[in-house]
Design a protein that fits this description.
The complex is a heterodimer. By secondary structure, chain A is an all-alpha fold. Helix content of chain A is 83%, strand content 0%. Chain B has 14 helices and no strands. In chain B, helix 8 (220-243) packs antiparallel against helix 9 (248-271). Classes of the chains: A mainly alpha, B mainly alpha. Chain A binds chain B through residues 16-17, 19-21, 23-24, 27, 65, 68-69, 72-73, 79, 82, 97-98, 100-102, 104-105, 107-109, 111-112, 114-117, 119-121, 123-124, 127-128, and chain B through 1, 3, 6-10, 76-80, 142-143, 145, 207, 211-212, 214, 274-277, 332, 336, 339-340, 343, 348, 351-355.
């Protein structure tokens, strides 16, 4: 089974691919981008929740750090959720400029967020939680996304 | 386990990187003016004071400012480490390098040897403070990736070229040149271009291309070995230069081969990137890979021509490759920093990144830059053209500065006119 770090890093790549598909569809016609956008948003939301409701909790419990790196990551998740809702609005308004303005911002925010996670947080988590790695990955896989 | 030094939290204050980014195009303009007022003959000679000054106004004033500004910003993200007292260190070294470079310019062109001597002290200390602080910060790295290794290698080269550069410049100030002056100048320039800038760009590219453009990932072999292979090539080149100069071409081919492979890889990866969006930053990546391919070949061929065209080689590599990438990066990093810092302060309705920079002007800037670069190369053979392309170059740098200022003004205006925790999103229009 993959480690926490591998599992979540691979999920980043999966979200990146969906992001690229979404942009590709939207660049051709913003009207038809809704499905591709939803696919990307759902995957991203699932990733956020796997962290917030499973991995971060385990990490915080183990290390006692609740105001540390996980707090920063949660804050960035909320920034990204805001951008995602702006993009949803842009699709409703059929406003291509607004959509790509927000998607570009989201892309950079998301990638620097991912770098920080892959470079530091996942590495720290894997070190601290290695004994429970399989259980945590299983929990993330079987987690049901909350609305 | 010790988590100290690990920083997943926010970046350094925005004023630190912006200071570096705002200064860079100004030196670009100064370099353009110096090219305008000088003749081709003077600039084509690598060791004339004029060409030394123009080169350093560009490489220190533009390239190193953008690279160090970006490093200060990206170290917490890419490596997870914080530079100690980043605001003080960043601002102090910026000031020292800024003043040092101006004094080098006036000292060398005005033949004021004392000023040149002081400039060597200012530049040397400015760079050393910054480089050593970063190397100290790297001691806290927990996860040593290929990019981290490349950054440490690159900064180690930076340390050496700073020491050599300080020695070379102080020799000009003192008017005393050692018998190894030319050898040191060669090491200084080759290690600066390939060891510092080249390896830094390669290391960051491993991360940036797959992430920001959803391009295919770099092969494991490439990530793990290229930096090592280039470093060994640079050390071999040094050894051959000292002991067996007639064989140094072998090391040159070795180094050039890997940079050529790298630029071809970048070109192919940009072509097969998954993101369809094509903006000026994509154009800069593509132009960088093309110019670097030409540059590596020119560098090796020039060796067989007795280094007659070395200035053209540095135009291709320094201007076409390094400068292209730095300009492309500025267009991404500056608007993002503005957005990121405003958002972190609680402002909700901020213009998107795309609204912060004038895209049409950015495209015009790119075109002017490429025209100038190609024009400079032609000017080596048709001298009167040089002043024409100096003007297009100045224009391109002025537009770049204007575009960066536009983004910074968004930051300044938002801070001035809107209260914290903007509520406009909740109000009816």
């Amino acid at each position: 089974m993959s480690t926490i770090k591998e599992f979540l890093s691979d999920d980043h790549s999966r979200c990146d691919d969906l992001f690229a598909v979404m942009e590709d569809v939207a660049s051709k016609s913003i009207e038809s981008a809704k499905d591709a956008f939803n696919a990307f948003r759902d995957a991203t939301e699932r990733h956020f929740q796997m962290e917030e409701r499973v991995m971060f909790l385990e990490f915080e419990q183990k290390t006692g750090m609740t105001q540390g790196p996980t707090a920063v990551m949660r804050h960035e998740h909320s920034q990204m959720r805001n951008l995602l809702s702006e993009m949803a609005k842009a699709i409703e308004e059929k406003n291509k400029d607004k959509f790509f303005g927000n998607s570009e911002t989201l892309m950079i925010l998301m990638q620097q967020h991912n770098m920080k996670e892959e470079q530091m947080l996942y590495t720290m988590a894997q070190q601290r939680l290695s004994a429970e790695s399989d259980r945590i990955v299983d929990m993330m896989k079987s987690m049901v996304v909350e609305a | 386990m010790n988590f100290e030094g690990l920083s997943v939290d926010q970046a350094p204050p925005i004023s630190v990187p912006l200071r570096f980014f705002l200064t860079a195009p100004l030196f670009g303009i100064i370099a353009g003016i110096l090219i305008f007022i000088n003749d081709v003959d003077v600039l084509m000679s690598r060791f004339s004071p004029q060409s030394i000054v123009v080169t350093h106004v560009m490489v220190i004033g533009f390239l190193s400012f953008v690279m160090f500004g970006a490093l200060v910003q990206m170290l917490p993200v890419l490596a997870g480490v914080k530079i100690p007292k980043v605001k003080t260190i960043g601002n102090l070294s910026h000031l020292l390098i800024f003043l040092g470079l101006l004094m080098m310019l006036f000292g060398m062109l005005g033949n004021i040897s004392k000023m040149t001597l002081v400039s060597s002290v200012l530049l040397g200390s400015g760079f050393l403070i910054l480089i050593i602080s970063m190397l100290i910060a790297f001691r806290g790295v927990v996860n040593v990736t290929a990019s981290v290794r490349a950054m440490i290698t690159s900064l180690s080269f930076a340390l050496i070229i700073t020491l050599i550069g300080t020695h070379l410049l102080s020799s000009h100030g003192l008017g005393k040149f050692s018998s190894h002056h030319l050898l040191f100048a060669n090491i200084h320039s080759v290690w600066a271009i390939f060891g510092f800038a080249g390896i830094l760009i390669i290391g960051v590219t491993f991360q940036v291309l797959p992430m920001f453009y959803v391009a295919p990932r770099f092969k494991r072999f490439c990530k793990q070995k290229v930096v090592w292979l280039i470093t060994s090539g640079l050390v071999l080149w040094l050894a051959l230069n000292i002991f067996l100069d007639s064989y140094s071409t072998i090391a040159k081919i070795w180094i050039a081969l890997f940079f050529w492979a790298f630029s071809t890889t970048v070109f192919l990866k940009m072509r097969s990137r998954r993101r369809p969006v094509s903006d000026v930053t994509v154009w800069y990546w593509v132009s960088a890979s093309i110019f670097m391919t030409l540059g590596t070949f020119a560098w090796v061929i020039d060796d067989f021509l007795g280094e007659k065209y070395i200035v053209l080689v540095s135009l291709l590599i320094g201007g076409g490759f390094i400068l292209s990438i730095m300009q492309g990066m500025l267009y991404k990093i500056v608007p993002f920093l503005v957005w990121f810092h405003l958002n972190a302060k609680g402002y909700m309705s901020i213009p998107t990144m795309n609204d912060m920079i004038n895209k049409k002007l950015a495209k015009a800037q790119f075109t002017l830059f490429i025209v100038s670069l190609v024009g400079f190369i032609f000017s080596a053979f048709v001298p009167w053209l040089l002043s024409v392309f100096a003007i297009t170059f100045i224009l391109s740098m002025a537009i770049l500065e204007y575009n960066i200022i536009l983004a910074v003004l968004v930051y300044v205006k938002t801070l001035k006119t809107k209260p914290d925790f903007d509520m406009s999103a909740f109000m009816q229009n």
